[in-house]
Amino acid sequence: MPLALLALAVVAFGIGTTEFVTMGLLPQIADGLGVSVPHAGNLVSAYALGVVVGAPLLTGMGARIPHKRLLLILSTVFVVGNAASALAPNYALLFAARVFAGLPHGALFGVGAVVASRLVASDRAARAVSTMFLGLTVANIVGVPAGTALGQQLGWRYAFAAVAVIGLLALAALSLLIPHQPRGAHSGVMHELRAMKNRQVVLGLVTAVVGFGGYFACYSYLVPMLTHLTGLSDASTTLVLALFGVGMTLGTLVAGPLTDRALRPTLYGGFALLATALVALHFAIEHLVPALVVITIVGGLSALITTPVQMLLMAKAHEAPTMAAASNHSAFNLANAGGAWLGGLVIAAGWGWSSPTLVGAALALAGLALALAGGYLDRDGRGSKVVTGSAPGHGPGAEADRRPAAACAQEPDC
Questions:
Q1: CATH number at residue 279
Q2: Most buried residue, 60, 160, 198, 206, by most Cβ within 10 Å?
Q3: Cα–Cα distance between 155 and 176 in angstroms, integer?
């Protein structure tokens, strides 16, 4: 794997840290700004709003900008947003800063996925993308706990300042390690938007929203589930979340090779196993050791789904994969909001603290059904190739443009 993938992993590490560290610092932020903890919790939604809006918006605005330059621009926005978060004097400006910090999230991952897949041979494209995603999973093991501890000891502003420093390091790494990748002659926002009309792209995004909603329905309430049902102390939950991150990292390492070999079967198996693991967690949650084992497995299975969904969208978008790859992360954040909302509904209805696991299992099964429907639509054998980018001077459909990944060759079971 090229060293340039390390630069993309650093970007993903910074994104993963800033996305989740806010959750661990809500009491400190609330105290510092004189608001309630639930009010401070809206800052998590502010970041998600930035992701949902920014992914298609910034990807479209940068549709003609060479990938390396676009990555540098987006990383600069990321640094400015987190620096503004650290310096915000009041809640309103912090809310605005979190929206701004979330804007480049999806575009960075989308452009990064396309760049990563073009750095390697076509039969290793999924492994390259999963290597970038490793930065996100490692953030759950190292970045989020470290950022939470820093914010608790020195103040929440220091956590966002540290993320801004990570962003500066990512900027330097991108500048030094990422090669120039020119856009094709037919690149542009309309070219990207036309690819989004593909029914398989739309179905893939819906699959991501519904299926990943199952993961977030559980993850959003993991801490209260553990503290209420296992008697685990608040101080110990950070270690449990780090254990969840270990599972995600292991799942990401497995996802790349499996996706390169068989994309759709990996996706089907991931959703089916995730639903099974969430049901198992429902019955194991009151017993600490079994619960920790199943939690680690759930983390791994959630990551196992991420890479095949990303590669599937890139495949079905043909010669304009960037918008589809970026929009996938808008879908993840919609899944975050929807899964958390549904999990909260069943708790409020009196179904018990473990009930979000069953909601998550139902959503994972719904995601599996949607994925199977997508496979059924490909039953005529007209599967799509993964086209990781357009070479300059070649138009849509030109064979010189095409760099198919073995994970999605033209076979019915792609």
A1: 1.20.1250.20
A2: 160
A3: 33
Q: How many residues are listed for the chain in this entry? A: 414
Q: Which tens digit of pLDDT belongs to each residue from 178-236?
A: 888 776 555 556 666 666 777 888 899 999 999 988 888 888 788 778 888 887 776 67
CB 163 within 8 A of CB 18: yes
Task: Please give the tally of structural domains in the chain.
Answer: 1
pTM of the full structure = 0.78
d(CA 304, CA 205): 17
In a domain, 167, yes or no: yes
Cα dihedral 328, 334, 340, 345 in deg (nearest 10): -140
Domain of residue 200 covers: 4-408
Q: How far is CA 399 from CA 196, 224, 227, 395, in A?
A: 21, 53, 57, 9
Q: Which residues contact 191 (CB under 8 A, 6 or more apart)?
A: 63, 319, 320, 396
User: What's the CA gap between 151 and 385, in Å, rounded?
Assistant: 46
Q: Is 56 inside any structural domain?
A: yes
Does residue 414 lie in a domain region?
Answer: no
- Find out whether 307 and 280 touch, Cβ atoms under 8 Å: no
